[in-house]
Amino acid sequence: MQINGFGRDQAVKHPLVIALSVVVFAESAVLAIATIYLVVEILSGASGSLPSAIALTVLAAVATTWLGFVALNILRGRAWVRGATITWQVFQVVIAVGCLQGLFATPTVGWALLAGAVVAAVLLFTRPVVAATAEREPHGQS
Asked: Domain segments of the chain: what residues?
C-alpha cells in the first residue's frame, strides 16, 4: 500500500527512528558544509595539490548525497540502511580519532564527530529501529 510515496503504511514513526534519521541528516548537512568549504579552498587557490583537492571534494559531495539518501530511507523503513548507517559511523569514528591526535589535532571537531557516531550507532541498534527497518521488499519491487 502506497501512502505519501513511502511504499508502505508508515504513517506513524517511532521517535527513535525519527531521531536516527535526524542524526544522519545532520551528519549529511555538516558534510555538505565541509564540501562547500573544500570548494572555496579550491577556488581561492589555498590547496597544495589541485588534483587531490578536487578528488577530496568530489568524494565529500558523493558522501553528502549518499548520507541524505540513507537518512531519507531510514524513514522509509528500508532494511539496507542499517548496513549503510553503521558503515558511515565507523568511517566517522576513524575520522574523529584522526582529529583527536597528531600535529594538527582539532579535539573539538573530533569529539563532536565521535559523539554523533556513538549516538547514531546506539539508535541504530534499538529495538524500534531494528523493527522498523527489518521488513524487506519482495524481490523485483522497489
From this structure: 15-132
Mark residue 101 as left, alpha or beta (left: phi above 0; alpha: psi -120 to 50; beta: remaining). Answer: beta
Q: For residue range 71-103, list pLDDT tens digits in order.
A: 999 999 999 999 999 999 999 999 999 999 988
Please provide the size of the chain in residues.
142
**Looking at residue 142, what DSSP letter applies?**
-
* Model pTM score: 0.82
Distance CA 124, CA 74 (A): 10
The DSSP result for 79-136, as a single string, is: TTHHHHHHHHHHHHHHHHHHHHSSTT--HHHHHHHHHHHHHHHHHHTSHHHHHHT---
